[in-house]
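pinging the channel bc i need a second pair of eyes. not urgent but kinda urgent?? the chain im working w is below, pasted from the shared doc
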Amino acid sequence: MAFNMESLAEATSGAIGSLLSTTILYPLDTCKSKYQAELQVHGQSKYRNTLDVLLEAISSRQVISLYQGLGTKNVQSFVSSFIYFYGYDFFKKLYLKISGFKSIGTRANLIIAVVAGAFTVIITQPLDTASSRMQTSDFGKSKGFWKTLSEGTWSEAFDGLGISIILTSNPAIQYTAFDQFKQRMLKKKMKSNREVESSPESLSAFSAFVLGAVSKCFATCITYPLIRCKVMIQAAESEGNAEDEAELKARKTICGSLHAIWKKEGLMGFFKGLQPQILKTVLSSALLLMIKEKISKTTWVLLLALIRDASKFDKGGVELPLALFGMAGMNLLNAFLGIDLFKAYRREMNPPRTHQNHRD
């Protein structure tokens, strides 16, 4: 199957949306992760809630440490989101082509989303593990990406892979629900407008935000015990941890982490940190989809322009990467500053021809 331009635009918009939402909410994510990773020892816990994590950072003058691991997290977020959105869009179109259907059902949509998510997790798991360890390290003691991974074995770089694959059901449910709601809303919008446009329709920012929040909340509640187990498996060990080595090693498996939570914190321990998790995931997903919808049209327009003018570049196999990074940079400026570089680009490539037409 030939490289699909619409899939590339979809994947790029999704990746940029993920990058921006991750950066904006990263301090909240750090507080949440450190709170989730802590397990009670002898009935005592260091943090009562996520606010205690924030207060510790402030009191120790380590507020900047709330951003530890941000670079690795952004790389992981951008790469995984790009792979997921492109894979999801690609397999959806492939299914429609093979089946001959005009639309895709909820069940098929869910299966496609899970497959795309599983491939994404397998490829990006070392990045996810490294960012989690850096994020949950003691304030001011986070290590770099390579040092974090090189301290353990290669297999430890894939800590939590099994549970991450299981958790692909979370975004799969969310994106499936969002896509179905979006299609219904856009059908109503197209009927009311009765206009045919050259670029894909998109939701308003507010509609995308609401749909993203609603579709994510339920999936998060259902899968939360596994989410906390994943954080515990991937978390860095605190220097003041009083647990023995055998117990720490046992917690690096799904069954071991579930048993440890049940033994030390009881039933409610499975839902420790649920509130900040819902807040973070709902805001993150809603922001991601809102930004994606906002920049999807401009990404489409720029991609058309870049492909149209690709013949002006040397055939060295570098046009696509340059186009991709160009789209990312211009979309970031468009999202942050509202600068329409695409309008300036089109004006530069298509100057007014009033005088020439007059002479003709």
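so The chain has one domain: 5-296. and The CA atoms of residues 107 and 304 lie 33 Å apart. — does that match what u expected or am i reading it wrong
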